[in-house]
UniProtKB/TrEMBL annotation:
PANTHER family: 6-PHOSPHOGLUCONOLACTONASE, 6-PHOSPHOGLUCONOLACTONASE-RELATED. GO terms for molecular function: 6-phosphogluconolactonase activity. GO terms for cellular component: cytosol. InterPro entries: Cycloisomerase_2, Haem_d1_sf, Lactonase_7-beta_prop, WD40/YVTN_repeat-like_dom_sf. This is Lactonase family protein.
């Protein structure tokens, strides 16, 4: 097993790094030294399909996505789709349909691409968010900021817009995007990322600007929404700046995890039988500004990256109570914002 970690390339980093993950001397898993395997600008988010990596690419005055193929132990660039201006903030994937979904925070564009067996990219369609419901925070004053674009449990598409404080739903048929519905978060929520319950009847959306998780019941057939509850990801007495970032739900639907940039923690919630949340743990990431974290296929090991302090932390996860236990700290990896476990 190995890790792939990428992020900004503004200081020390130059691309995507690979770190080995293996048991050492009969002990728990340990992460080895990072080595660069893909040289690319600003791979702040990327996804994998077998031998292919599809990554955000900040190429100077252009931005977009690029594909890389693993051949004889080396990654080779296969294709790129770049346009003038900023690169996207998020890339999602459907491996069966060979589709990629990107959200561009700066240009407000959501786009869909296809890829073939050679890693070649084809642009299919896009929509641009407008400033319909901009929030009151300074980060929202300059327009819409979609930060997430991926699939729903029923195979529709969903975006999270930090500027507009909303969750938008789309269909994608005959290579065309069509807007279906909108759920509006409270003003200043800063809608960022979303996860769905295993039964598809509820979603948990995290607000970057509010440091909150909003639990919502959803009828994805009739597009009815019910706002159930909202939970803080940080302590009530924490007054410094915080920006919540990634959110994950365990495969069994019993636990929710979110990262806090500023409080520098991962918050763990247990999911009750009625889908409401109960705070279980807040644990340090042992660094500053943890944007992303992820787990292995078995959800036993969790890795969080700290963007500002160039380090990562390895935890074990207890499947019964959801809690994390750190087993390795101060793993050097520069400017990390995206974590992906890879076999």
């Amino acid at each position: 097993m190995k890790l792939l970690i990428g992020g900004y390339t503004k200081k020390k980093a130059t691309g995507i790094y690979e770190l080995p993950l293996k048991k050492a001397d009969g002990l728990e898993m340990q992460i080895g030294p990072a080595k660069e395997v893909i040289k690319v600008g600003g791979p702040t988010y990327f996804v994998q399909d077998d031998k292919f990596i599809f990554t955000i690419n900040n190429a100077g005055d252009k931005g977009g996505i690029s594909s890389f193929e693993l051949v004889n132990g080396q990654y080779t660039q296969k294709d790129s789709y770049l346009t003038p201006g900023s690169s996207p903030a998020y890339i999602g994937i459907n491996r069966n349909k060979k589709l990629l979904y990107t959200a561009n925070y700066h240009t407000a564009v959501l786009a869909v691409f296809s890829y073939d067996q050679d890693g070649s990219l084809t642009f299919l369609d896009s929509v641009t968010h407008t400033a319909d419901t901009l929030g009151p925070c300074p980060e929202q004053a300059d327009g819409p900021h979609p930060h997430f674009f991926d699939e729903t449990p029923q195979g529709n598409l969903v975006s999270c817009d930090l500027g507009n404080d909303c969750v938008d739903f789309y269909s994608f048929n005959n290579n065309k995007l069509k807007h279906l519905a909108k759920y509006q978060n409270e003003p200043g929520f800063g809608t960022r990322h979303i996860v769905f319950s295993p039964d598809g009847g509820y979603f948990y959306v995290v607000g970057e600007l509010s440091s909150k998780i909003n639990l919502v019941a959803i009828d994805e057939t009739n597009w009815h929404f019910k706002n159930i509850a909202t939970y803080s990801t940080i302590p009530d007495d924490f007054s410094d700046h915080n920006g919540s970032a990634a959110i994950k739900i365990s495969r069994d639907g019993k636990f929710i995890y979110t990262s806090n940039r500023g409080h520098d923690t991962i918050t763990v919630f247990a999911v009750n039988a009625d889908h409401t949340l109960q705070l279980r743990q807040r644990i340090s990431t042992f660094g500053e500004f943890p944007r992303d974290f992820n787990w292995d296929e078995g959800e036993k090991y969790v890795v969080a990256t700290n963007q500002n302090t160039d380090n990562a932390t390895l935890y074990t996860r207890d499947a019964e109570n959801g809690c994390l236990t750190p087993i390795q700290k101060d793993i050097f990896v520069p400017e990390g914002t995206r974590v992906l476990f890879s076999e």
